[in-house]
Specification:
The protein has about 350 residues and is α+β, with helices and mostly antiparallel strands. The chain has 15 helices and ten strands. The strands form two sheets. A five-stranded antiparallel beta sheet has the order 2-1-5-4-3. A five-stranded antiparallel beta sheet has the order 7-6-10-9-8.
C-alpha cells in the first residue's frame, strides 16, 4: 500500500492523467483507487436504470465468479438498487447498502461467500443517461476499516475529477465515433444539443431510430420543455439529461439517450383492474418512479420521508407482482405514455 504523500502515489495519479481518453483509463483509475487501501480484488461495473449491471473489468477475480454474478446475482445486487434509488457520486460501502435493502439474502448469503468476498467498497462515478461506473475493491477476509473509508473519501475528488475529464475528453472528440464506442457511451442512440436546442452531435444509432420513428423528435421537444428525465415511446425509453458548464462539446447543453424496452409484456398485463388495485398515493408514487425520479426526489415532492416512500414502493411491487423497481419500470414503460395514472 502507498501512503497518500508517497511520490509513487502521485506517479500513479500522473499515469491516470496520461490515460484520459484511452481504453486504459478506468483500469488505471481503479488501480489508483486501490493503491492505498488493502484489498484482494477489484471490479468495474456499469449500472443503469433500465438495464442489468455490466461487468467491464476485473482484476484477480475468477471467471466463474463473474459468470455467476452476471447469470444469477446481478439482478439482486444491492449496489445497483442503491444507484437506481439515489443516483449520486460518492464512496459507498457494503454495510450501507445492506442496511438499506433488506431483500438481498441471495446476494449476501450465497453470492458473496461463494465469491470469497467478505466486504466491498465502491466509488460511484456518473456518466450519461443516468448510468454510472462503479469501481469496486473487495476483501476476502475482514472488513474495510474506518481509516480505509476515510482514505477513500480523501482520494475521491481526484478520482471523480479524472473521470469527468475523461468523459469530457471523449465528447470533445465526439467526431471520432470509435472513441465513444469502446467506452460503451455511444452504443445507444444519442443526441447532444447546445443550450439553445441546436443539435451538435448525433450518432448513427440515433439517426436510424429517428428515421424509423418520427415521434422521437416530438418527445425531445416535450422533454426539454417539461424538464422530465424519462419518457416512454413505443418500444423505446428516452432519457433526458442537462449537461454542466464544463462539458466542452455543449456547455449547459442537453443529452438524449434512447434505450430499447427489454421485453414486451404479455397481453393483459396492463388491464384496468391491476392499476385499480393501487391507492391514489400509490399511483402518485408509481408516476414519479416511471419518470425516473429517485426516492429522495419523490419524498421531497410529496413532503413525506424516504422511509415512507420505500414502504409505498414495496406495496406497489407486491400488488404489481414484481420484485424490484427495474422490473416495474420494464413492465410499465412501454405503456406509460398511454396510461392515465
Amino acid at each position: 500500500m502507498l501512503r497518500l504523500d508517497d511520490k509513487r502515489w502521485f506517479d500513479k495519479l500522473g499515469q491516470v492523467a496520461k490515460s484520459i481518453g484511452s481504453r486504459d483509463f478506468h483500469p488505471e483509475l481503479v488501480s489508483l483507487f486501490g493503491a492505498s487501501i488493502r484489498h484482494d480484488s477489484c471490479w468495474i461495473i456499469r449500472f443503469s436504470r433500465n438495464e442489468s449491471p455490466e461487468v467491464l473489468y476485473t482484476n484477480n477475480v475468477k471467471s466463474h465468479v463473474v459468470g455467476a454474478y452476471l447469470g444469477e446475482y446481478s439482478g439482486v445486487d444491492p449496489f445497483s438498487d442503491y444507484w437506481n434509488n439515489h443516483g449520486h457520486a460518492g464512496v459507498i460501502m457494503l454495510a450501507k447498502v445492506k442496511a438499506e435493502y433488506k431483500g438481498i439474502e441471495a446476494y449476501s448469503r450465497v453470492f458473496l461467500p461463494n465469491a470469497r468476498i467478505s466486504d466491498e467498497m465502491s466509488v460511484f462515478l456518473p456518466t450519461v443517461g443516468n448510468d454510472c461506473y462503479g469501481l469496486f475493491l473487495e476483501r476476502e477476509e475482514g472488513v474495510f476499516s474506518r481509516a480505509d473509508v476515510e482514505r477513500a473519501r480523501r482520494v475521491f475528488p481526484a478520482l471523480e475529477g479524472c473521470h469527468r475529464a475523461h468523459i469530457s475528453n471523449l465528447f470533445a472528440n465526439a467526431h471520432k465515433a470509435c472513441e465513444l464506442e469502446f467506452n460503451r457511451l455511444a452504443d445507444k442512440p444519442m443526441l447532444i444539443q447546445d443550450r439553445f436546442g441546436a443539435s451538435v452531435y448525433s450518432n448513427d444509432a440515433w439517426n436510424e431510430a429517428v428515421a424509423g420513428d418520427r415521434a422521437i423528435n416530438s418527445e425531445v421537444v416535450r422533454l426539454s420543455a417539461r424538464g422530465e428525465k424519462t419518457r416512454a415511446l413505443d418500444g423505446w425509453i428516452i432519457k433526458f439529461e442537462k449537461m454542466t458548464g464544463d462539458f466542452p462539446l455543449a456547455p449547459h447543453g442537453r443529452m438524449f439517450v434512447l434505450e430499447r424496452c427489454n421485453s414486451a409484456p404479455a397481453p393483459g398485463d396492463f388491464d384496468t383492474p391491476s392499476l385499480e388495485e393501487l391507492t391514489p398515493r400509490e399511483r402518485d408514487i408509481l408516476s414519479f418512479m416511471l419518470r425516473g425520479c429517485t426516492t429522495g426526489h419523490i419524498a421531497q415532492a410529496l413532503t413525506i420521508s424516504k422511509g415512507v416512500v420505500k414502504n409505498y414502493k414495496h406495496r406497489i411491487y407486491r400488488k404489481m407482482n414484481v420484485d424490484s423497481e427495474r422490473a416495474l419500470v420494464r413492465r410499465f414503460a412501454p405503456f406509460f405514455s398511454r396510461i392515465d395514472i
